[in-house]
């Protein structure tokens, strides 16, 4: 396996194809040689992952991904494994044709796929149907084959990308291979880390195919994988005034829990002071549950103003509601032009009354909220999360966290990071409220909006992974509070 020296860089499919062309045109490495290297890397990974495997079936499509598959089949056959190839068609061109001829010369068994046919038995299936060459739903015949592979119970290794998964967006427009292992080549494709990719890719290995570092020089990246980060140790003479004052605004009738989670997360993430502007009926519960918070009964904008004057950063939206009370507090908070984290109903109100922000601002929508902010549908957001996150950042002049599997952090300059942590157990009530408090606390302690969003998303997701060691089902947002404290101090690694 050839290690990546730029293993946090993410590329579009077109950028990876440009790297491939550079290797051929500028470095003089033939397309067939690249295909051979890919097959060698993939077969080595297969042997490491399934050392007891004795029978393989390789499913080959019509393009270069199929060419990779034919060469994997030839390598496995040469190593003494029982190998069969199932192909969608026998029409090939260029390097893929040469690869098929190499396989045919090995005298291995080859079948044409028919929708009413059965799959050969194997210890491992190898998906080499489409790779990055498909940006639409597979046709009926290919879909039938993919569905049959997925239903077989046989473990699958995908070459480059699970067939049917869009490697640019992480979206599956139709049937897609569910792999246990994916071996991707040359560079990391951005769509392999967000959206539906988490259910398709399995363990991911990226192999640079031994290409020299000069190949990447001057090639821009599209995005980056988020790296673990934490705050530096505090000065020995630090006091609470050095760590900022977060004002959390929300908690309409019946939603005290949301603003409590947000506020307590801000405390656990290191904010020096945390005040809460909320309904009067929430005061007793907040004081009893967390006496370190400073809750205030706020009936309208006038009572909010004195709290705004003392605050460093605002966290607006958890449990805020969209009634006249919530709208009045929202409008007053935004008009204060304070640094801001906006979530939940704060975002729904923004969709109704759009504005650009001049103060440092972080928006943290889930896909449904993002759809409202962009006047589109949730399905359209999920079809291309990268475009959606960048469009939100541009439209509102803010840093945007598009939540979900593989959360994205984008700013209005086009920068974008992808979070590689988190788990399905975090799909429960209150998790977003918690993130709002974490990001606000980091801004209060001196991080700019981009830094706070990136670090906050990472800390939140890593805390979720630590908390999920006891199981994903039943994971509560409050379970993340203690791991958050540990991680923000750099005392554990999730």
Automatic annotation (TrEMBL):
Query: Origin organism of this chain?
Result: Dyella dinghuensis
Q: What is its EC number?
A: 4.2.1.136, 5.1.99.6
- Positions with a binding annotation for AMP: 403-407, 432
The protein's matches in InterPro entries, at most eight in alphabetical order, are given as: CARKD, Nnr, Ribokinase-like, YjeF_N_dom, YjeF_N_dom_sf
What residue stretches are annotated with the YjeF C-terminal domain? 223-491
UniProt remark on cofactor binding = Binds 1 potassium ion per subunit.
YjeF N-terminal domain mapped to chain residues: 16-217
Q: So which cofactors does this thing need?
A: K(+); Mg(2+)
Q: What's this protein's family per the entry?
A: In the N-terminal section; belongs to the NnrE/AIBP family.
Q: How does it assemble?
A: Homotetramer.
Name used for this protein in its record: Bifunctional NAD(P)H-hydrate repair enzyme
Reactions catalysed, semicolon-separated, are:
(6S)-NADPHX + ADP = AMP + phosphate + NADPH + H(+); (6R)-NADHX = (6S)-NADHX; (6S)-NADHX + ADP = AMP + phosphate + NADH + H(+); (6R)-NADPHX = (6S)-NADPHX
């Amino acid at each position: 396996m050839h290690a990546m020296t730029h293993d946090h860089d993410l590329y579009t499919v077109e950028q990876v194809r440009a790297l491939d062309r550079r290797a051929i045109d500028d470095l003089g490495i033939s397309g067939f040689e690249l295909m051979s290297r890919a097959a060698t890397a993939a077969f080595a990974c297969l042997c490491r992952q399934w050392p007891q495997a004795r029978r393989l079936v390789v499913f080959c499509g019509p393009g270069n991904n199929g060419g990779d598959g034919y060469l994997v089949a030839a390598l496995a056959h040469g190593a003494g494994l029982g190998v069969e190839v199932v192909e969608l068609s026998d029409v090939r061109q260029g390097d893929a044709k040469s690869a098929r001829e190499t396989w045919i010369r090995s005298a291995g068994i080859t079948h044409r796929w028919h929708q009413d046919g059965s799959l050969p038995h194997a210890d491992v299936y190898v998906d080499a149907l489409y790779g990055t060459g498909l940006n639409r739903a597979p046709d009926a015949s290919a879909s039938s084959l993919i569905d049959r592979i997925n239903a077989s119970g046989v473990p699958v290794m995908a070459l480059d990308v699970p067939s049917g998964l869009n490697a640019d967006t992480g979206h599956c427009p139709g049937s897609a291979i569910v792999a246990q292992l994916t071996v991707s080549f040359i560079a990391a494709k951005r769509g392999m880390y967000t959206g539906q990719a988490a259910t398709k890719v399995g363990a991911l290995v990226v192999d640079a195919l031994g290409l020299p570092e000069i190949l990447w020089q001057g090639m821009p990246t599209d995005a980056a994988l988020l790296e673990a980060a934490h705050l530096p140790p505090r000065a020995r003479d630090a006091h609470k005034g050095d760590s900022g004052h977060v004002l959390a605004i929300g908690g309409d009738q019946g939603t005290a829990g949301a603003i409590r989670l947000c506020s307590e997360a801000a405390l656990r993430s290191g904010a020096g002071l945390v005040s809460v502007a909320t309904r009067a009926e929430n005061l007793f519960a907040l004081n009893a549950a967390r006496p370190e918070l400073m809750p205030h009964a706020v009936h309208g904008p006038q009572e909010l103003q004195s709290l705004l004057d003392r605050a460093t950063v605002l966290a607006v939206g958890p449990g805020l509601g969209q009634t006249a009370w919530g709208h009045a507090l929202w409008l007053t908070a935004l008009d204060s032009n304070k640094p801001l984290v906006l979530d939940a109903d704060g975002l729904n109100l923004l969709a109704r009354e759009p504005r650009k922000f001049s103060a440092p601002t972080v928006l943290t929508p889930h896909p449904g909220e993002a759809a409202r902010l962009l006047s589109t549908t949730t399905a359209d957001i999920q079809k291309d999360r990268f475009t959606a996150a960048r469009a939100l950042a541009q439209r509102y002049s803010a840093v945007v966290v598009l939540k979900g599997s593989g959360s994205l952090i984008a700013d209005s300059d086009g920068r974008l990071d992808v979070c590689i942590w988190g788990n399905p157990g975090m799909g429960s009530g209150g998790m977003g409220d918690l993130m709002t408090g974490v990001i606000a606390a980091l801004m209060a302690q001196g991080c700019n909006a981009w830094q706070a969003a990136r670090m906050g998303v990472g800390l939140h997701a890593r805390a979720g992974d630590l908390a999920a060691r006891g199981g994903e089902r039943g994971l509560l947002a409050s379970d993340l509070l203690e791991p958050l404290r540990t991680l923000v101090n750099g005392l554990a690694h999730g």
